Amino acid sequence: MASIMHDDAKPLRRTAILDAAEAQFAQHGYDGVNLRAIAREAGVDVALANYHFGKKRDLFDAVLMRRAEVLNAWRLKALEDALSEARPNPASVEAIVRAYLRPLLTGSHVSEPGWKHYYALIAYVNNSPEWGGKLMTQFFDPLINQFIDALRLSLGDVDEKALFWSYHCFSGALTLTFAETGRIDQLSKGLCRSDDLDGAYEHIVRFITAGFESIRPGK
Questions:
Q1: pLDDT tens across the length of the chain (219 residues)
Q2: Three-state SS string across 90-158, please?
Q3: Could you give the C-alpha distances from 67 to 63, 64, 74, 119, 161, in angstroms and in order?
Q4: What are the structural domains, with CATH classification, of the chain?
Q5: Closest CA to 92 of 169, 148, 153
Q6: How many whole angstroms separate alpha carbon 208 and alpha carbon 58?
């Protein structure tokens, strides 16, 4: 076992476990998965999954953190670019919303199976009373607070309660989009596709921008 744990394949085995866990958690939720099933899908012994990640909860956190770090870096760069381009004025609401959404909904990565699994998992976590407040706060709130600060500057002396409810609606729309439930496919009779994240981008940008603009003081 020691030779397996310390050979050159160790990073590949670790990635295989994360990929398998991501897919399993996205499909079955946290309680519907055990380490043995994850190890089986990854093609490794369950002892190796334990060695790399320990308990199931620790593996769950590792799955969430892996792509959260990537997404947060992309969105932070997009926000910094939007703020820089607008200086010395505040960035527009639309520019901030685009900086938030563009890295999430556009690009070649959105059609990759791993990212689809991750987005489905985020939809599950964000809508869970058990996990939503805890894990979304841990992995995403520091960056989200920077976006809310930017919106606050853009909107002026905005009512704080309205600002946070508006973000709540924003988060809900994004979560439903991530879930790719097929609901919009049925409702639109195929005119819209839930797996068309890139196509959803402009529609969500316009809708969410209008929502934030509606709470601007003086409106």
A1: 334 444 555 678 889 999 999 999 999 988 898 999 999 998 888 888 888 888 899 999 899 999 999 999 999 999 999 999 999 999 999 999 999 999 999 999 999 999 999 999 888 888 777 766 777 778 888 999 999 999 999 999 999 999 999 999 999 999 999 889 999 999 999 999 999 999 999 999 999 999 999 999 987
A2: CCCHHHHHHHHHHHHHCCHHHHCHHHHHHHHHHHHHHCCCCCHHHHHHHHHHHHHHHHHHHHHHHHCCC
A3: 7, 6, 11, 10, 30
A4: 1-54 (1.10.10.60), 65-213 (1.10.357.10)
A5: 153
A6: 35
Give the Cα separation of 27 and 78 in Å (integer): 30
Closest C-alpha to 197, from 138, 127, 111, 133: 111
Nearest-5° angle of CA 210, CA 211, CA 212? 95
Which residues are within 8 A (CB) of 43 and not within 5 positions of it... i.e. 6 or more apart? 16
Tell me which residue of 70, 64, 219 sits closest to 139, measured CA to CA.
64
Residue 178 exposed, middle or buried by CB count within 10 Å (0-12, 13-18, 19+): buried
Q: How many Cβ atoms sit within 10 Å of the Cβ of residue 25?
A: 25
Could you give the angle at which helices 137-155 and 93-105 cross, rounded to 10 degrees?
Answer: 150
Q: Is 164 exposed, middle or buried (0-12, 13-18, 19+ CB in 10 A)?
A: exposed
